[in-house]
């Protein structure tokens, strides 16, 4: 089992620093194009929780239209972070996070308090052998998902899939970017 400690954090910095800005730019564009956060009305700024923020690049490389104090960062690693400061977020991001969470119910509280969830996650192509797949990391990746499984899982929390694309490929491989939107029930 992987320990998310200072060594893991510094390894992230060393391995991914070269592509961090490029990936974050892709992610912000992906969110903007699929949620209209860059067309905010009534002078309301969108609030974002970067859950599993790692080194904090997503917040650091934010677009100008996002106010810095509108982004909260949270991670289980001992990294600089704001913590979860709000009861509700317009968008919760789970960039490369779900495969590391042992129990999905650990994030239920944030799913009940957001309109959108944006994720990136590796999805194994059918024609690839598990042991030869780049993202096959027993002990680090605790779960492997299909798109159908993710849709069913998020549906339990009243979300529907808005978009499934692969804008990070290249430079990455076999990584899907998805946005789920919370469905408003008749009682809300």
Give an overview of the whole structure.
This protein is an alpha/beta fold. It has a single domain, classed as Vaccinia Virus protein VP39 (Rossmann fold). It contains 5 helices and 6 strands; from the N terminus they run ααβαββαβαββ. The protein has helices at 6-16, 20-35, 57-60, 108-111, 147-155; strands spanning 48-51, 71-74, 89-95, 114-122, 159-165, 175-182. Strands 2-1-3-4-6-5 form a 6-stranded mixed beta sheet, sandwiched between helices. Helix 3 (57-60) links the parallel strand 1 (48-51) and strand 2 (71-74). It is globular. The model has no long low-confidence stretch (mean pLDDT 87).
How is the secondary structure organized here?
Blueprint (H helix, E strand, L loop, with lengths): L5 H11 L3 H16 L12 E4 L5 H4 L10 E4 L14 E7 L12 H4 L2 E9 L24 H9 L3 E7 L9 E8 L6
Parallel strand pairs: 1-2, 1-3, 3-4
Antiparallel strand pairs: 4-6, 5-6
Q: What distance lies between the first and last C-alpha atoms, to the nearest angstrom? A: 41 Å
CATH topology call: Rossmann fold
Overall shape: it is: globular
Radius of gyration: 16 Å
Helix content: 10-25%
Order of helices and strands: HHEHEEHEHEE
Rounded average pLDDT: 87
Question: What is the top-level CATH class?
Answer: Alpha Beta
Strand content: 15-25%
DSSP summary, beta strand count: 6
- What's the helix count? 5
Number of domains: 1
In terms of structural class, how would the helical and strand content be classed?
alpha/beta
Biggest sheet descriptor: 6 strands, mixed
CATH A-level architecture: 3-Layer(aba) Sandwich
Which spans of ≥5 residues are poorly predicted at pLDDT below 50? none
């Amino acid at each position: 089992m992987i320990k998310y400690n200072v060594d893991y954090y510094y390894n992230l910095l060393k391995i991914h620093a070269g592509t961090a800005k490029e990936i974050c730019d892709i992610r912000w564009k992906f969110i903007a194009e699929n949620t209209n956060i860059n067309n905010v009305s009534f002078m309301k700024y969108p609030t974002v929780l970067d859950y599993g923020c790692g080194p904090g690049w997503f917040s650091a490389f934010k677009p100008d239209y996002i106010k810095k104090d509108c982004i909260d960062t949270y991670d289980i690693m001992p990294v600089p972070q704001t913590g979860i400061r709000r009861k509700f977020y317009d968008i919760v991001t789970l960039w490369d996070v779900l495969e590391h969470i042992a129990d999905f119910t650990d994030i239920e509280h944030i799913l009940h308090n957001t309109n959108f969830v944006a994720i990136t996650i590796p999805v194994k192509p059918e024609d690839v052998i598990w042991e030869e797949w780049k993202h096959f990391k027993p002990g680090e990746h605790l779960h492997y998902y299909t798109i159908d499984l993710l849709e069913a899982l998020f549906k339990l929390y009243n979300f529907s899939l808005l978009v499934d694309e692969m804008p990070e490929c290249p430079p990455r491989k076999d990584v899907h970017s998805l946005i789920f939107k919370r469905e408003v029930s008749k009682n809300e």
